[in-house]
Design goal:
The structure holds 2 protein chains of 2 kinds. Chain A is of the alpha/beta class. Chain A is built from 6 helices and 5 strands. Chain A has a single domain, classed as STAS domain (Transcription Regulator spoIIAA, 2-Layer Sandwich). By secondary structure, chain B is an alpha+beta fold. Chain B has one domain: Histidine kinase-like ATPase, C-terminal domain (Heat Shock Protein 90, 2-Layer Sandwich), CATH 3.30.565.10. Chain B contains 4 helices and 5 strands. The chains are: A alpha/beta, B alpha+beta.
Chain lengths: 142, 133
């Protein structure tokens, strides 16, 4: 069965969706990600959808579920790279992806994650790094 | 000759094939990128309804040309249980399944034309069209 690959980079999991997903593939991705977050002790998930020409309510709902599942497992999610035509269509469809953080591209997405993990820089222990960071600096960036 | 195809809709893989067929027809008709995306997304929503609530069915994809303007008409037909309360089914957030209840209302907003016929016990037929703007 085909699967969407999940890459691990430090505390982060990276997913690039490059195919038009059928429903089962989307469900498998959701389960695989939940699994990997726990096994890899990931603190963050970055999902690149720049190759997706269409995001319908099913995929939209899946992105929302992934973000919610990750949150429950103490990981942050950012969805990056949405095409402008997809954004226009999603909003007209009535789906503004509540609860899903988005960023324009991978670089900006990583920046958001790095900031919200308290400059952990992928050193394998975000919580410790957060307590080391000067509180004043962390507050200023929020 | 203008395209006129009927595809069958039996599985979630068929939804992917329908999205691709609608996309390629929209590209041939030189619809704008946003219009292409809207009609493909509407097709995806309606195809899923046909599959989930109608138990599968068919989709007819027609390329249209009418005094200078070009368009795309899609007809989704199933022989499922039908929709007893159409007005309610068109409301956002109303669903009898597991979805978000955005399919019908969303597809209507994404289309230039929208028509639905449904008879309880006989099935449902949804027709949408998108014209070049």
């Amino acid at each position: 069965m085909d699967r969407i690959p999940i890459l691990k980079m430090g505390d982060y999991l990276l997913v690039t969706v490059q195919v038009d997903m059928h429903d089962r593939l989307a469900m498998t991705l959701q389960e695989d990600l939940a699994d990997r977050i726990v096994k890899a002790r990931a603190r963050a998930v970055l999902i690149d959808i720049s190759a997706l020409e269409v995001v319908d309510s099913f995929i939209g709902r899946m992105l929302g579920s992934i973000a919610a599942i990750a949150r429950v497992l103490d990981a942050e999610t950012v969805v990056v790279g949405m095409r402008p035509a997809v954004a226009i269509t999603l909003v007209e469809l009535g789906l503004a992806l509540p609860g899903v953080r988005t960023a324009l591209n991978v670089e900006k997405g990583m920046e958001i994650l790095r900031r919200s993990l308290g400059h952990s820089e992928g050193n394998g222990n975000g919580a410790a790094a957060e307590s080391v960071a000067p509180p004043s600096e962390a507050d200023a960036e929020r | 000759m203008l395209r006129d195809d009927t595809l069958s809709l039996r599985s979630s893989e068929d939804i992917v094939l329908i999205r691709q067929a609608v996309r390629s027809t929209a590209v041939d008709l030189r619809l704008s990128l946003v219009d292409q995306t809207k009609i493909v997304t509407a097709a995806s929503e309606l195809a899923r309804n046909t599959l989930d609530y109608g138990g599968g069915g068919t989709v007819r994809i027609e390329a249209l040309q009418d005094s200078g303007r070009r368009g795309l008409r899609l007809t989704f037909e199933d022989k499922g249980p039908g929709i007893p309360d159409l007005e309610r089914a068109l409301k956002d957030g109303y669903t009898t399944g597991n979805g978000l209840g955005l399919g019908l209302g969303g597809a209507r907003r994404l289309s230039s034309e929208f028509a639905i016929e449904s008879r309880p016990g006989e099935g449902t037929k949804v027709t949408i069209a998108r014209w070049t703007t």
